[in-house]
Amino acid sequence: MSDTVLHRRDGALLVLTLNRPAKKNAFSDEQWVALREALREAGADDGVRAVLLTGAGGNFCSGVDINDMVAAGADHPFESCARAVAFFEKPLLAAATGVAVGGGATLLLHCDVIYVGSSLRMRFPFVNLGLVPEFASSYMLQAIVGARQAAELMYTAEWIDGERAVATGIATACFADELVLERALAKGREIAQWPLNALRETKRTLKSHQREALERAFRVETEGMLRQARSPENIEAMMAFLEKRAPRW
Hints:
Layout: E1 5-10, E2 13-18, H1 29-44, E3 50-55, H2 66-71, H3 78-86, E4 92-96, E5 99-101, H4 103-108, E6 113-117, E7 121-123, H5 137-145, H6 147-156, H7 162-168, E8 173-175, H8 177-192, H9 196-207, H10 211-228, H11 232-242
Helix pairs in contact: 1-3, 5-6, 5-10
């Protein structure tokens, strides 16, 4: 079992902690695989009725580790993990403080209940990296906040704080950082007290109308990402990031 995702049982609630704090929990290939396998195991374990995702070290997740992103190939485990999250069949909660960027932000869109801290700094940085949205976020963000706000957030790649995350509907509630995990655990326990099949069937009824749209979003995003990844725009964005300078478009 990889230590990039920590597992802790709290009764029928499983707490999964993204655990690369030195990298602000940026996803490595190993961590994508670890999260995917943790969710698959949780889905098959009848003793688990709900899952809570959080991050170690005061941050939720800063997206994809740039070193792994540069080295990514066709067999990259991102998509299989993204699908494990998007189509997870039990209640999925999140407790997020600090940075939630890129994959860390798009992952949150698939959680059913999201508690965030006042320190939250969330961002969808795709156009500024010469890329396109991923994790079916092109559909999910619009479904949550509406087309106009989704377009603004995607086109500008601007920062979202805890208050705005709640106001737009991205997050359920915002608390002082020191209270976020405690409140999320309490809500997770409240949900996990109910019968497993009732929870699973309720999630199915809530999410069934989204499945076709999610599949289409995954497909269209992959097509766009294949066109943009390693394009001149993307290469310049990556070089500017690594060299800590403004990109020259």
